[in-house]
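Lab notebook: predicted structure, single chain.

Context: the supervisor wants predicted structures on file for every construct in the current expression panel, including those that have not yet been purified. This is the next one on the list. No modifications to the sequence; it matches the entry in the shared construct table.
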Amino acid sequence: MDNSGKLKNIVPLLALLTAFPAFSTDMILPAIPSLAVLWDRPLSVVNLILIGFFVTYGFSLLFYGPISDRYGRKKPLIAGIVLYIIASILCALASSVNSLIAFRILQAAGAAASASLSMAMTKDIFSGNERQRILAYIAIIMALAPMFAPIVGGWILAYMTWHWIFIAQGAMGMIGLLGVIRTPETLKEPSKAHISKVMHSYVDLLLNRNYIVMVLVMSVSLLPLYSFIAGSSVLYINGFGMTEQTFSYFFAFNALALMAGSMSCLKLTDRINPKHLMTGGFAGIAVGAAFILIIGHYSPWTFALPMALITYSIGISRPPSNHLVLEQVHKDAGAASSLLIFTYFTLGAVGMWLVSQEWMERMQILGTITLVCGVLVLIAWMILQKQGLGSGNHQ
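Prediction complete. Output recorded below exactly as produced.
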């Protein structure tokens, strides 16, 4: 395919496909407290619309990549988006929390295609500095999507019912589908290897001790972020009495802190050892958690500012963490990346489940989860450095 002829059309399409997961999860957040009241179900049940999405999304990522390498990008991408559109319509028609959970699982299976294959298409089409520029553009979209998604959801709820959130997501899917149909197949030479060979790569990775240890440690560092996502709407709307729209602005503020952390990492890596950034980031998670437990309940801002410190710390430590995890493997980088993201989402779902329980007051649960994760990861990271596991021991 001619890069110059398709560049103007393909880049916005890739950005849209990349934004599917964030819009699918964060747009519905403002509606969660009202759905709990509407169906008279506890948060631990209603939040399964998030948990089920995350788990299914993570599992689906493991399969779309190998399938697209074997059969091309376009067919599995079209199939995934069609499934996403159908599931979005079914979500809009859901009459109970159980049916909405089931349809969200279908929606996640479709959304995984758009996110994973859009990155593969970028690799197919662009190379060198051009690819770096396109990936930077997509990274900005990935950072902005969590900021705007709950705002869009909040404004929809201000004038319409929650059903329209899923109608809007279905419309987004239709736009993406039309774009993909008009785009030629980007994979020039499909792999001849059997898909079972890729599955064998996952087995090799599970036997790579250094890789698995680093994946688990770095995944636990993200668990507080997913816990916040699941508990934020109840904390702000029910706890502080905010409207859905006001909550969406506070959530966007937190997403801005995450983006600021990633940008700070980009600026500081030339001057500060990335391992020191990771140490500071892990310490920042624990410090922010302590502030939440001490002063978080006083006002929205005494909660939002420590939480922003936590997400900023996650943002500044995540890029070098991802790099260090992948340094533990010598081959099968694609499978290693997929398994890493799968673990992020799976442990993230655990965090969502924990914060949805009624063991104690919601903010105490979030603060305790974050403090425990921050301290454990910081200690584990110190031990790993002493053992030399952070220096890229290859499989």
